[in-house]
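worker-03 picked up job from queue 'complexes'. Input manifest follows; two sequence lines, order preserved.
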Amino acid sequence: MARDSAATKARLLDAAFAEFAAYGIAGARVDRIAEAAGANKRLIYVYFGNKEQLFDAVIERALAMGAETVPFDADNLPDYAGQIFDLFVANPDLARLLFWKQLERPGATDLEVTAYRAKNAAVATAQQQGRINADLDPGDLLALVLALSQAWFTAADGMSPTGTSSSWTTQRLAQHRTAVVHAVRRITTPHG
Amino acid sequence: MARDSAATKARLLDAAFAEFAAYGIAGARVDRIAEAAGANKRLIYVYFGNKEQLFDAVIERALAMGAETVPFDADNLPDYAGQIFDLFVANPDLARLLFWKQLERPGATDLEVTAYRAKNAAVATAQQQGRINADLDPGDLLALVLALSQAWFTAADGMSPTGTSSSWTTQRLAQHRTAVVHAVRRITTPHG
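worker-03 finished. Artifact:
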């Protein structure tokens, strides 16, 4: 029973991830999620609560998986940014999910606040020990590094692959990745 | 008559801007837009076409106003990025509108493609003449500079002011602006 329940929960979260990435919170249909998961709609309310709480659970799981796939490394931010870029290239739905979050469910969850504070502290330590650029506040540096890793996905001029992925070659993506790593290196290198 | 029509169009576009920024395309209600503009709903279809075409008109107007407020300057990208940041701080709805576009209406309009090519060419010229870093493709450099100017608004950890604007002091915003300008300077400075 416990195993079945865990498997059903996982299927519901997978289906909810796809549904929210496609339609956002307002546009998502709980019926479609239940149907895609092959589960009773009632179970969504039993396991997760309302649609917003289901969204929070999807976000929490996605961020935990992301943090596991790409561990934070204050001493190698160029490579960290490159790996975050790879993560979004491999999971375009993740970028969409975070856009929806920004629009429909802004504000940080407890997990995010905890993770952010840990990164902030690691950056501050690396700065104090002269290993990375100390001209910037750790929070600003973090935000800028993350922005660079996601530049491809936030480009407002339609350069992003979300709309026209077929036209973006592997080679073009590799070139942009190199640019991201180069830019983060320039930003994080201590004065010397 | 022509003047009345232009005034009505402008009121409809203002109302549509607010409605789309709040609810996106799928969530926007044409009735609410007409009511807020004090205009007949039918005029929206007469002037702009369907809801997607109205959204395109709103985007085109917003981008044109943005380009007028902050002219592109390939020779002073740090200041350009700072001014783009100011533009988003002053118009948080503009950031929301562009997020919705990314999710619901990706791909570049003709106007965007034209504007992008002009910026790209200006960056390429400045690179060839040794005035800015030539290690990166002009398109990559542009995307990275824009990402830095918008980092504050795309921070996935809930740092963004969209959710909790009251807690972001003028001083904190000024500090982040300085960080953006600093980072863009580091990225764009030629070697040597």
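worker-03 released lock.
Chain B touches chain A through 51 residues (CB under 8 Å).
Residues 124 and 137 of chain B are 8 Å apart (CA to CA).
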